[in-house]
Amino acid sequence: MELGTVLNTREDLLNSSKDDDGFLQQYLLIDEVMPLLLEVKVVDSEDINHTYYLSNDDKIKINGYTVNSTGERLQIFIVDDSYLSESNDDFYVSQRNNYEEQFKRAIRLVSSAIKKNLENVQESEPIKTLVAKLGSEDGLTQFDVVEIFLITLSATVSFRGEEPQLRTINYKDENKSFSYRVSGKEAQSKELLFIRRVVDLNYLANIYASQGRAEPLKVIFKDIIGKNIEVIKAADEEDFESYLCVLDAPILANLYKRYSSQLLEKNVRSFLQFKGVNKGIKKTIKDDPEKFIAFNNGLTITATEAKTSYYKKSLYLESLDDFQIVNGGQTTASIYFSSKEGLDISNVKVVAKINIAKTSKSKDLDDLITKISEFSNSQSRVSKVDLRSRSPKLVKLKSLSESVLSPSGKKWFFERAKGDFNTQVRKSTNGQKLKNDFPPKKRFTKELLAKYYCAWGDAPHLVKKGGEKIFRMFIEDIEPEQGDGIDINREFYEQLIAKIILFRTMEEVYGQGKNAIGQLRSAAVPYAISAIYKWSNTTNNGTLLLQKIWKQECLSDGLIEYLKELLFLMNELIKKYSLSDDYGEYSKKEELWVAVKRSSELKEFMASASTKAALNF
Fold first, then answer.
1. How would you label 124-135 residue by residue, b for 16+ Cβ within 10 Å and e otherwise?
2. Residues 6 or more apart in contact with residue 477 via CB below 8 angstroms
3. DSSP letters spanning 457-489
4. 375: confidence class by pLDDT, cuts 50, 70, 90
5. Is 337 a residue whose pLDDT tops 50?
6. What DSSP line would sit under 540-590, residue for residue?
7. pLDDT at 502
8. What does the alpha-carbon distance between residue 284 and residue 279 come to, in Å, rounded to a whole number?
9. What is the pTM of this model?
10. Contact between residue 167 and residue 173 where contact means Cβ atoms under 8 Å apart
């Protein structure tokens, strides 16, 4: 990675993080970065609870947080405001303590919340929900890991040579114990694993350069479990070798706790709680732990390099590069959550096959992993959708975006590959013209595409989740395993653009910051759109509305006023029918959407004269 590439990334992020008045906003910077973090699988969704809080007296700061899809990992985001100025040329960082002080601000937040030292935080503060959660028994039972992301527009460098050289600063994981007391109970303790990640220009530029392919995961077993793994070499060919071993369940639990979904990057099946196969795994752990190895198919692991050594005539595995569980991810997760629930996993053992591809070509590795996933005797069937790395229908959609003109004679830019637009700008002889032709409001990525498309449906809770779940829903809808699916033609494209305009306009109407309707924009918008879809589903009015938006390329003033009323109502209904004080997280649950759409308040509103006038129902 060259320094110039990093500087270009800084310019792009600065320009993309400005509001309509040209001021750089920290929440917009986070919104730019989240899809990149999702691309490399260090987060499960691009959705984030924006909860800006700053206390100079307590030396505390947080910009936002999210909880991973399985609930055990709290992910906190802070923006380093030292390097946000466009005029500031001094954005090189070479000392660890520059970042260390920033991380401490987030750690103090967690510590103070657990110790109930932040009870003076006002109810109106967005951070109040997280503070209350961390100060409760439920919260401390739920969270095992606190992962802190420091987002900084600095370049991490070494000054040892004549010119600054890019480098990486890593921080060791740290376990911290906290004592807390619950009313009527004895004092208890909770150990949290703190993971610190520097998301600097170096890191972000690498994501763009790799078009979203995650940085290979290197697992050094002594660092994670305190020992090497005894193995047997089963095959040693020119471009391939294989090892067999038996893993104690606590080893897998520790690996999952540390790396979570990163372990499963190339195995896109998600953990399905304790239903079906996973329910059987839990039952075996509980009733017949010694027989687990006989009943379970075990794991298939892939890597690109293995470091081994001999000790007392036995072969031991020290580390694996590009470690991935391609079959058995649900077994691994089930073992972790069984242990978390208090089940004894000490007598559980799992057989594992470790395949090492001796190739530096990512295509060969991906082909190998696809075949292993397809032909392994997996515990839940891997669909063709899971194994497909690119969709022909997305290619067709890209072609339409390059050829179809809107009624005003303009085009939209579909960024099918991460960083595609910036690449085109730099290749062009007139990059500024491209930027003028395709401002941010005229561009969309495949991740955003899935949200916009699926919001016009009956699953706004999944839209709120975002990430892989909603993208998978989108792909399975347009390209199912059986049948031809949806024809990606001009009509589809025009309606898609209309959905994008509707979604983005409603986001603007809801607002962000002090002038917003509330703090639930990422939930209220898809919920409101799904309400419109539901009540127009019995007629052709929904299609007519989309056609009108496409032709006008905007929403009328009357429709905007109506949508504002709907968003106000939806904001209140989400809070009223939520069974948790953390409305943002609870809005990801289907039961909330069911309660909202069945509510008398929404039915009355959708049957009103204003609805009929605005939507022509």
1. eebbbbbbbbbb
2. 453, 454, 485, 486
3. TT-HHHHHH-HHHHHHHHHHHHS-SSS-----S
4. low
5. yes
6. SHHHHHHHHHHHHTS--HHHHHHHHHHHHHHHHHHHHH-SSS-HHHHTTSH
7. 97
8. 9
9. 0.84
10. no
